[in-house]
Request: fold
Amino acid sequence: MKKHNFNAGPSILPQVAIENTAKAILDFNGIGLSILEISHRSKEFQAVIDEAVALFKEVLGIPEGYQVLFLGGGASTQFCMVPFNLLNKKAAYLETGVWAKKALKEAKLFGEVTNVASSADRNYCYIPKGFTVPTDAEYFHITTNNTIYGTEIHEDYNCQIPLVADMSSDILSRPVDVSKYAMIYGGAQKNLGPAGVTFVIVREDILGKVERTIPTMLDYRTHIKEGSMFNTPPVLPIFTLNETLKWLKALGGVEKMYEMNKKKAGLLYDAIDNSKMFVGTADKDSRSLMNICFVMKDEYKDKEEAFMEFAKKQGMVGIKGHRSVGGFRASTYNALPIESVQALVDCMAEFEKNNM
Reply:
């Protein structure tokens, strides 16, 4: 039976990226060694990381003055690295979910933090609007897509102070005006590659302005100077990330990906909105294109487990909602084909037909 992978992360990858990674694990580039055992200082791997940086800059349209880094530690390490490097006295944060809240908590260790707006009052089911960002803050931090709650910021904010964004789960899913951001970071395990590598896109002129001494490993300038090679980088995940970037470029780039993602999300949201049994949890103007969250209507709550079992038998993987929200979550990341979304829609329709 065909499996339809809706996992929230680590998540589905392009088949060609998986196949090429498998080949490289056995014999990388015909050199007789596995990608798992070559030196990260070798010319063969240097070519991989150089290509990955160049492709990232190309497909996302990253302007001059920005550096691309591939680090370890996940986005969670960035929660402290960002304020360590940027927060001198005051920062501003937008609280739109669990990960945004965790980033805010870490920043408070380094200085004053203003929570400009929060959607916690309704369990993060919407993106706040009409908030004011203090101009005396050193930066404004946002989380563009909230995987647990299925909400997403669909615009690039015009900000008078440096804008920092955690784009772990929607990077390369839509066009982004990178010039409006001072920094973009995220874990790769949604749209870019396997778990283990973290990407950082940083404008160099924002660095070196804090008064504190920064530990070597936590200083972005260290990794810029050494080309992400100050210590041993996550070699295999970077290889797969590069293969994913090549796949994305061949497909038509971010613009084409955005077109495909809107179709996938539209197909599932239409099915939810027209259902007599299911209902979406995020406000319609805040809905994510990457994580689609829904539950059973109150009168059918007792059928949730039955639907999970039915969907599993139909090949649906990873649709159980996060424990803090419940219900269901379908993650429709870049590599998920629209055929899988159609299969889920058909599964929902069949279950509804037989259980009303």
Q: What stands out?
A: The mean pLDDT is 97. The chain has two domains: 15-251, 253-355. The longest strand covers residues 112-118. DSSP finds nine helices and 14 strands in the chain.
